[in-house]
């Protein structure tokens, strides 16, 4: 069981959250100009990164807000939690699970 | 606010839609009463039907929020878990820009007051009284009953009277509000989950009717 710290509600069990996939995937500036392959890559293709990975979570049974989590996909350690309007923290600054 | 909450239906009591409505747990009233346990491990379950609930969304530091606070007579709580109360209203934090106003006053009047205070500013005031119902779980063993299915730390070092949070009890999302130190909890599940949650709680209460095993 992961213990994830919601930026608004504090530490809660993983069962209160929903996973939202990789974070920081920008919407294409001109989606109409994309060919099918580029559109498919935007919609479906995600990194399968080993190590620290920025991903989106939503506190679905709490405050129902989306936020970002930096999680180590090997150890499952939650390295950092930050709001959508905050930049991804540099790893050197990330402490343990706050 | 431990006394049963009733709605002042005013002159319309006895007629019209207010008199015709049935609470989501009316059919389990007898079962809930029969499940009550007395004594040192006592715990009792009941429904407080038809509590007025108004969902409020507004920028937390906006002018409209100030007007709404004056209309309510209470500040909007700014942190998860906090509640504020004034007269017949209790305001519960739901999110950084979202609150639930619980009240013993009639829903149309509360919603109209808040809507007038919001004015044309960005935000919303919605009467959601039918969205949830209220279960009251009270007694020395109430915390042990909830701890069977709630992931939250309900010990008095972390949770106390006057605190309310959205969480889960069993598989059911609820707004969990502790009203006093008996302890008495109010659980606000969606109406369609109320039947399941009441049966879940009745089942969880059963063991406290027997002597504690060493």
From TrEMBL, chain A:
Record-linked Pfam families: SoxD
InterPro entries named in the record: SoxD, SoxD_sf
UniProt-recorded name of the protein: Sarcosine oxidase subunit delta
UniProt lineage: Bacteria, Bacillati, Actinomycetota, Actinomycetes, Kitasatosporales
TrEMBL record, chain B:
Protein name: Sarcosine oxidase subunit gamma
InterPro entries (alphabetical): SoxG, TrmE/GcvT-like
Alphabetized Gene3D superfamilies for the sequence: Heterotetrameric sarcosine oxidase, Probable tRNA modification gtpase trme, domain 1
Species the sequence originates in: Streptomyces oryzae
Short name of any one Pfam family annotated for the protein: SoxG
């Amino acid at each position: 069981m992961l213990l994830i710290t919601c930026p608004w509600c504090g530490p809660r069990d993983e069962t209160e959250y929903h996973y939202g996939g990789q974070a920081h995937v920008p919407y294409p500036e001109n989606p109409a100009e994309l060919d099918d392959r580029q559109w498919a890559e935007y919609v479906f293709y995600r990194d399968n990164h080993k190590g620290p990975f920025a991903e989106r979570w939503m506190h679905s049974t709490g405050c129902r807000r989306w936020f970002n989590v930096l999680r180590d996909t090997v150890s499952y350690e939650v390295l950092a939690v930050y709001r959508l309007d905050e930049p991804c923290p540099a790893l050197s600054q990330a402490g343990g699970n706050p | 606010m431990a006394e049963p909450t009733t709605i002042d239906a005013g002159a319309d009591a006895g007629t019209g839609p207010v008199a015709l409505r049935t609470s989501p747990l009316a059919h389990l009233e007898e079962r809930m009463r029969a499940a009550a346990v007395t004594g040192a491990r006592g715990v009792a379950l009941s429904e407080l039907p038809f509590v007025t609930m108004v969902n409020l969304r507004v920028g937390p530091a906006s002018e409209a929020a100030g007007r709404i606070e004056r209309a309510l007579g209470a500040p909007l709580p700014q942190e998860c878990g906090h509640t504020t109360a004034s007269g017949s209203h209790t305001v519960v934090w739901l999110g950084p820009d979202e609150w639930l106003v619980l009240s013993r006053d009639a829903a149309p009047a509360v919603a109209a007051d808040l809507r007038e205070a919001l004015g044309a500013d960005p935000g919303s005031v919605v009467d959601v009284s039918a969205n949830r119902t209220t279960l009251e779980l009270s007694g020395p063993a109430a915390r042990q009953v909830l701890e069977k299915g709630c992931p939250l730390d309900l010990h008095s070092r972390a949770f106390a009277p006057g605190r309310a949070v959205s969480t889960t009890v069993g598989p059911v999302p609820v707004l969990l509000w502790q009203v006093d130190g008996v302890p008495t909890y109010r659980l606000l599940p969606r109406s369609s989950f109320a039947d399941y949650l009441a049966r879940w709680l009745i089942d969880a209460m059963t063991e406290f009717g027997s002597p504690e095993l060493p």
